[in-house]
Amino acid sequence: MLRKTPLAAAIMSFVAVPAAAPLYAYAQTAPTTQVQAPGQAQTEAVTPAENATLPAVRVTGQADTSNDFQPDKSSVGAKVPTALRDIPQAAVVVPKSVLQSQAVTSFSDALRNVPGVTIGAAEGGQIGNNINLRGFSARTDIYLDGFRDRGQYYRDTFDLESIDVLYGPSSLYFGRGSTGGVINQVSKQAELKAHASVSAMVGTSDRYRGSFDINQPLSSTSAIRLNAFGQDLGSTRDVMKSKDYGFAPTATFGIGTPTEVTLSALIEHNRDQPDYGIPPVNGAPAPVSKSQFYGFEGDRTIQDVQTVSARIKHRFSDDLTLRNQTQFSHYSTDAIATNAAAVLTGPAGNSPALANGNFTSLPLSSLFVRLQGKDRNINDHSIYNTTDIDYKFNTGFLKHEVIAGVDLSHETYSNQSFTATTPGLPSNTIAIVPLLNPQYTTRPANTQEVATNLVESSANGIGIFANDTVSIGQYWKVVGGVRWDRYEASIKNTLNAPSYATQTNFFTSVRGGIIFQPTDWQSYYVSYGTSFNPSLEALTLTNNQQNIPPESNRSYEIGTKWDLLNGGLSVTQSLFNIDKTNARTLQTDGSYTLDGDVRVRGYQLGLAGHITNKWQVFGGYTYMDGEVVKALDNTNGKTLANTPRNMITLWTTYDLTPQWTFGGGPVYTSARYAASNDFVQVPAYTRWDAMAAYHQKHYDIQLNVQNLTNKHYYDALIPSDGGRAVPGYGRTFLATLNYRFY
Fold first, then answer.
1. Short-list 586, 582, 604, CA closest to 595
2. Stretch 388-408: mean pLDDT, rounded?
3. What is the mean pLDDT of the chain?
4. Engineering a disulfide at 476: which of 248, 316, 472, 673 sits with its beta carbon 3.0 to 4.6 angstroms away?
């Protein structure tokens, strides 16, 4: 019997469209059920009359969908909220209802719901959220309400309405970056309906958290909202702990009027324990306890984030809207961190070091680890402004929606690094500890720290774009757009070469798609998009890259989007191919050329919504074939780092009674390599989570078990030093009380 590969099976599913029609037809005969939150009165679902004509206002109808897993719009497919079926690319929207049922509070944990996302490292090391999307780094492709959120910090979900992910190159709307896609955090907005709630969470391993959400109308057209949180979290990892807090105020004036003004801010403080993971031995993470930590008790990362924004929207008519938004952000990081570097065959500083996967026949008890400092002070500033116009008009039988605008940006970045050395040991070595059971102590008192390279960089950008969605008759839409970017960046080093570099890049990005919608529950599309990655994209520089033009990326995608079971269940599929056709590759003389080729091909499936009025699901599957097709170094022909072939995420809940909800599901990730040299492979894993909740009108009591089976698995991968892997948390019990005052 001939077995089909996942990609072949995916292709077969595309020709099975007729099989879905009977399912939909059957669902159409079923009675329509109004879904509402447990314990919620039916009258609460009625939209106030004064808001009935304001579909663009986010606050309308929220009571109906507060517990719904099925989103219908995305903020990331265009500059305005757009129906998912009208976006000719794969997109996933993770609503707050999913996050709440999972008791998820961190940005990285929230992205476990998104197939194709893996956790990795960024320029300068493992600080903050470092995301890979479809095999490519998305560290600078994280957005907050449509603006680049470029800081290296640990994001929280306390002020998020949803997390929206758009797959594939998308420079048309977002400028530089977005090789694998973009991730947009959608903040909670002020509403005209008053509400207030508090939440308290306690858990095993000394986990404590509290938060509140207060919304208060000021008049019939204005309101303010304040979200805040504070937490003190322990961990199943030895020594690891964090203490964080944050505030997010917002005020909106002119709700429902032609002119609407919104002022908002995000203020967050993190004091976390940096975790640089476990070194490899014999081509895999060293087989040590999952709680093992390689570092010192005084290690910590202190981060402060201040972001303020102002948005003005004026509606001239139902067909013409003008928007302007400005955002200013400051990020600071003070890190005292340690990483497990080389694995040594002896305890002395001059002991031989293993390499290339650290293969050895020596017992683990004979191996030692060199601990190096990763101390640095980082300051990041950015100011962004965008002005765009949304214009709907007809030319004969063609209906147009044109979104055009201008993006302006100014960014600065500084990174002061330090070298820490203990006398008697090699440079930048703090200690040499046994691989097995190292003692947890503070740094040696005689450790000497010296400031080394200071990086100071800045960038100015301008982007001019236009996109037209043309409706042709009842069934067809054609999407096409173009963007021109000018990106100018400079960088100065005090010690490293080059001491100064500057670069100005010009790039034209395009996007095109055709959508066929034969019924209101079917949508089929093909699309093409491009993006670019300048050498100074992250405002950091590897030597000899300063004269290299931008890398360019292109994506081809074909997909389907169905709303089955009377529209209650969304099912999406896509086949995709992403090429980075002129990837930077390192030559033997230390210089770089643009003659590399990196490719990721795959298939993606997504599910979101109701199977019955009591049973909800949210999840997806992705198959990724990532390969370094061409390179001049030892990565030629190797598997792309941190790109597993198969990933599955599934979360489901069932309302057993109006008061009781039970749920759970797995997250599966197949084996993957820590770096694009195939030396260190991290094993596959399946993690199971579960929940139970009791609902009343004014409160919910919820119990979650994360990593139910206490699986030993590896979460984040770091390609440096041969390829390190950060273990995931062990079994954790969480109890949450949510109380609503009105």
1. 582
2. 96
3. 88
4. 472
Contact between residue 129 and residue 142 where contact means Cβ atoms under 8 Å apart: yes
Tell if the pTM clears 0.70, that is, is over it: yes
Q: What letters, b where the CB count within 10 A reaches 16 and e where it falls short, cover 68-87?
A: bbbbbbbbbbbbbbbebbbb
At 67-93, the pLDDT tens digits run 899 998 998 877 788 999 999 999 999
The amino acid present at 437, given as its one-letter code, is N
Structure tokens at 410: 């100014």
**Helices vs strands, H then E, count in the chain:** 5, 41
Q: Give the residue among 219, 201, 92 at the shortest CA–CA distance from 156.
A: 201
| Most confident region among 166-170, 236-240, 305-309 by mean pLDDT | 305-309
Task: Please identify which residue in the block is written with the tokens 């947890």.
Answer: 440
Q: Tell me the per-residue pLDDT of 167-181, one tens digit each, with 9 for 90 and over.
A: 998 899 999 988 999
Amino acid at 582: N
Percent of the chain as helix, strand, coil, to the nearest 5:
10, 55, 40
Task: In whole angstroms, give the CA distance from residue 307 to residue 541.
Answer: 26
Distance separating alpha carbons of residues 689 and 215, to the nearest angstrom: 32
What is the per-residue pLDDT for 275? 87
Q: Which CATH class is domain 190-334+357-363+371-428+438-740?
A: mainly beta
- Which residues, including other chains, have CB under 8 Å from residue 396's CB and lie 6 or more apart? none
- Tell me the C-alpha distance between 198 and 576, whole Å: 43
- Per-residue confidence band for 404, with pLDDT thresholds at 50, 70 and 90: very high
556 alpha-carbon distance from chain centroid: 22
Q: Is the peptide bond before 550 cis (omega within 30 degrees of 0)?
A: no
* One-letter amino acid for residue 187 of the chain: S
DSSP for 688-733, written as a single string: EEEEEEEE-SSEEEEEEEESTT----EEEEE-STT-EEEEPP--EE
Query: What distances in angstroms separate CA 575 from CA 126, 263, 293, 363, 525, one per listed residue?
Result: 32, 40, 40, 46, 11
What value does the mean pLDDT take over residues 189-216?
A: 97
Torsion angle of alpha carbons 338, 339, 343, 345, nearest 10°? 0
Closest of 381, 447, 446 to residue 418, by C-alpha: 447
Residue 544 has pLDDT above 90, yes or no: no
How much of the chain exceeds pLDDT 90, in percent?
73
Report the C-alpha gap between 690 and 568 in whole angstroms: 23
Residue owning tokens 């990326």: 553
What are the tens digits of pLDDT across the range 144-170?
999 999 888 999 999 999 999 999 988
Check: CB of residue 284 under 8 Å from CB of residue 682. Answer: yes
108-144: b (≥16 Cβ within 10 Å) or e: bbbbbbbbbbbbbbbbbbbbbbbbbbbbbbbbbbbbb
Structure tokens at 259: 């002119």
Structure confidence at residue 617 as a pLDDT band (50, 70, 90) = very high
Report the alpha-carbon distance of residue 353 to residue 620 in Å, rounded.
Answer: 42
